[in-house]
């Protein structure tokens, strides 16, 4: 397939490439074979005569191809709670809303509905890769992996582990052995349905330090090491949580050190939130090359705080964005792009303008940054020869001659007037766009979502 028309992607943290007329050739395995710039369709075959029979997917005047978004942290199991957080903070939010909902997903028909809906929602917002938390239940967590594989969304799927009495008796691992055995069972299942790990990968998931004993954390660190899997957990999200960790782990020098001493702080570890890290903790994360999932909507909703992302980037940390549903209220990484930019402005109001993230930087975190967080930076996040084609077709709303007419709203919230530069289209999409602008989505060259506005030619 040759994808023809405008394409836009990050080429560095601060720079987008905006190509008004390009051609991206993708083979039947979904691998990008060529990228041509400033070219007419007829001339593509001058260099690539053997692509004469390729299918052509064109994006027209006000649209462009953009890499698929990477959601580096979200809880599929909390989707049905979206919007419910009231005035809680982390620990009261967990007991009020989260444990009861997650526990109810032992019911497989209910899990089927919730997981199918959430995968539909994230795909329709352009998310082509997602790092998911399931629940402690192996069958429903495995079902989530089945759904991602069938629907074609790249995913890391984790069976959640927790064995302390912070979680209620009805929703808790009964022993360290149970936590590791069930985690291993889920790892084995996910590897059995996708042996090459082309779409779905297992990820070891200790919920967060207060949910697990030192023995449990150590056993899960060993499991991840033996099985060579990724690891995901939460760190330093909320002040009350940090105090709790200090009282539960008196021998550790910090929250991050709990993960360090239990073998969980590795280059394949995704740490969500990291709102209140100390300078020593930032240095430790850097030393281990662990990754950060920034979840700004959640951090504001449950009043955790403003993570200093500009500072993390300056310190050389690898950062991506996460929706953290249902701490976060939106399945959209585009929303997190805006929220990351807003949060950086609140940090700037208390420090200096140097703390602000630019639109370009936030889009980098949503794509290339996220890809690096989940270990897929060579495969996805941009349009480069050798990468796989994970992309979204973006269309802004057409303005019909004569002004506003019926139907305009169905075409999305962003009007285009025909005089915008490529850069202005991006700004309009980021600040005024939503899922109505994402008219088609591909993973490895497979069409995984489309709306009524998608046309091939
Ligand atoms: N810390 C432990 N569990 C959770 C969770 O489900 N969501 C968030 N945001 N933080 C957590
Ligand atoms: Fe979370």
UniProtKB/TrEMBL annotation:
<dbReference type="InterPro" id="IPR032466">
    <property type="entry name" value="Metal_Hydrolase"/>
</dbReference>
<dbReference type="Pfam" id="PF01979">
    <property type="entry name" value="Amidohydro_1"/>
</dbReference>
<dbReference type="GO" id="GO:0006147">
    <property type="term" value="P:guanine catabolic process"/>
</dbReference>
<dbReference type="InterPro" id="IPR006680">
    <property type="entry name" value="Amidohydro-rel"/>
</dbReference>
<dbReference type="InterPro" id="IPR011059">
    <property type="entry name" value="Metal-dep_hydrolase_composite"/>
</dbReference>
<keyword id="KW-0862">Zinc</keyword>
<comment type="similarity">
    <text>Belongs to the metallo-dependent hydrolases superfamily. ATZ/TRZ family.</text>
</comment>
<dbReference type="GO" id="GO:0008270">
    <property type="term" value="F:zinc ion binding"/>
</dbReference>
<dbReference type="GO" id="GO:0008892">
    <property type="term" value="F:guanine deaminase activity"/>
</dbReference>
<dbReference type="GO" id="GO:0005829">
    <property type="term" value="C:cytosol"/>
</dbReference>
<comment type="pathway">
    <text>Purine metabolism; guanine degradation; xanthine from guanine: step 1/1.</text>
</comment>
<dbReference type="InterPro" id="IPR014311">
    <property type="entry name" value="Guanine_deaminase"/>
</dbReference>
<dbReference type="InterPro" id="IPR051607">
    <property type="entry name" value="Metallo-dep_hydrolases"/>
</dbReference>
<keyword id="KW-0479">Metal-binding</keyword>
<keyword id="KW-0378">Hydrolase</keyword>
<feature type="domain" description="Amidohydrolase-related">
    <location>
        <begin position="66"/>
        <end position="448"/>
    </location>
</feature>
<protein>
    <recommendedName>
        <fullName>Guanine deaminase</fullName>
        <ecNumber>3.5.4.3</ecNumber>
    </recommendedName>
</protein>
<comment type="function">
    <text>Catalyzes the hydrolytic deamination of guanine, producing xanthine and ammonia.</text>
</comment>
């Amino acid at each position: 397939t040759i994808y023809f028309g405008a394409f836009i992607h990050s080429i560095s943290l601060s720079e987008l490439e905006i190509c008004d007329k390009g051609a991206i050739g993708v083979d039947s395995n979904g691998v990008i074979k060529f990228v041509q710039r400033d070219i007419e369709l007829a001339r593509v075959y001058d260099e690539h005569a053997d692509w004469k029979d390729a299918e052509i997917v064109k994006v027209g005047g006000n649209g462009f191809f953009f890499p698929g978004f990477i959601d580096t942290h979200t809880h599929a199991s909390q989707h049905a709670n979206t919007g419910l957080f009231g005035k809680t903070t982390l620990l009261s939010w967990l007991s009020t809303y989260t444990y009861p909902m997650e526990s109810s997903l032992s019911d497989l028909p209910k899990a089927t509905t919730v997981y199918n809906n959430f995968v539909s929602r994230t795909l329709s917002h352009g998310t082509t890769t997602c790092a998911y938390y399931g629940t402690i239940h192996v069958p429903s967590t495995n079902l989530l992996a089945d759904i991602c594989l069938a629907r074609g969304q790249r995913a890391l799927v984790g069976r959640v582990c927790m064995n302390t009495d912070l979680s209620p008796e009805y929703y808790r691992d009964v022993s360290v052995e149970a936590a590791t055995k069930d985690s291993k069972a889920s790892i084995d299942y996910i590897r059995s349905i996708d042996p090459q790990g082309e779409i779905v990968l297992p990820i070891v998931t200790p919920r967060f330090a207060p949910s697990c004993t030192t023995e449990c954390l150590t056993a899960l660190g060993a499991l991840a090491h033996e099985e060579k899997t990724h690891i995901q957990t939460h760190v330093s999200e909320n002040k009350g949580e940090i105090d709790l960790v200090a009282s539960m782990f008196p021998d550790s020098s910090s929250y991050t050190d709990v993960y360090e001493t239990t073998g969980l702080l590795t280059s394949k570890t995704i740490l969500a939130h990291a709102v209140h890290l100390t300078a020593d903790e930032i240095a430790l994360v850097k030393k281990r090359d662990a990754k950060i999932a920034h979840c700004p909507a959640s951090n504001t909703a449950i009043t955790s705080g403003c993570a200093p992302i500009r500072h993390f980037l300056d310190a050389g940390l690898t950062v991506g964005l996460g929706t953290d549903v249902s701490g976060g209220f939106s399945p959209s990484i585009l929303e997190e792009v805006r929220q990351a930019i807003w949060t950086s402005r609140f940090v700037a109001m208390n420090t200096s303008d140097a703390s602000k993230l630019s639109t370009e930087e936030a889009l980098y975190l949503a794509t290339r940054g996220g890809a690096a967080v989940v270990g897929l930076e060579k495969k996805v996040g941009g349009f480069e020869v050798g990468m796989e084609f994970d992309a979204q077709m973006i269309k802004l709303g057409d303005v019909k001659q004569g002004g506003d007419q019926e139907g305009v709203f169905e075409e999305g919230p962003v009007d285009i007037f025909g005089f915008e530069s490529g850069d202005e289209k991006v700004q309009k999409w980021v600040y005024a766009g939503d899922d109505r602008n994402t008219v088609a989505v591909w993973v490895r060259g497979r069409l995984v979502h489309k709306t009524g506005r998608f046309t091939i030619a």
